[in-house]
Amino acid sequence: MKTPFLRFGLLFVLLFGGIALRAEDLGAIKARMVQRQPALDNLRKQGAVGENNRGFTEVKKAGGDAADVSAAENRDREVVYADIAKKAGSDADQVGRARARQIAGNSTAGVWLQRESGDWYQK
């Protein structure tokens, strides 16, 4: 008798508790992204990190904290893109590619960007 009740309770917590947790997670992710922005901007200016055509960062020059900052940013972007895609009835790849176009359009001179063809260039 206790097992079905426990299963139901666990299912309830996972389904409905996860909604509140998810919103909190997105807030924390966005806060981390804002805090990381100055370091990411600096790495872009140095040419150490570029923006690919899927909406993610890529290390162009190894060294320093480029790999760590890029990996952390990409993990957070992946979650944000998936959330946007779910809300829009799209998929995360389409969201990322649309974001890549926005990033390219808003980037400053000297930032490494990747064209749809896969070629890299500096703006």
Calculate the terminal CA-CA distance, rounded to whole Å: 66 Å
- The strand order across the widest sheet is 2-1-3-4
Estimated radius of gyration: 18 Å
Number of domains: 1
Backbone structural class: alpha+beta
Strands, total number: 4
Report strand %: 5-15%
String of helices and strands: HEEHHEE
Helix content: 55-70%
Major sheet characteristics: 4 strands, mixed
> Counting H and I runs of at least 4 residues, what is the number of helices?
3
Q: What gross morphology would you assign?
A: globular
Overall description:
This protein is 67% helix and 10% strand. The protein has one domain (27-122). The protein has helices at 2-45, 66-88, 92-106; strands spanning 49-51, 57-59, 112-114, 120-122. It has a four-stranded mixed beta sheet. A hairpin with a 5-residue loop joins strand 1 (49-51) and strand 2. The longest helix has 44 residues, at 2-45. With 123 residues, the chain is an alpha+beta fold.
Question: What keywords describe this structure?
Answer:
single chain; 123 residues; alpha+beta; 10% strand; disordered N terminus
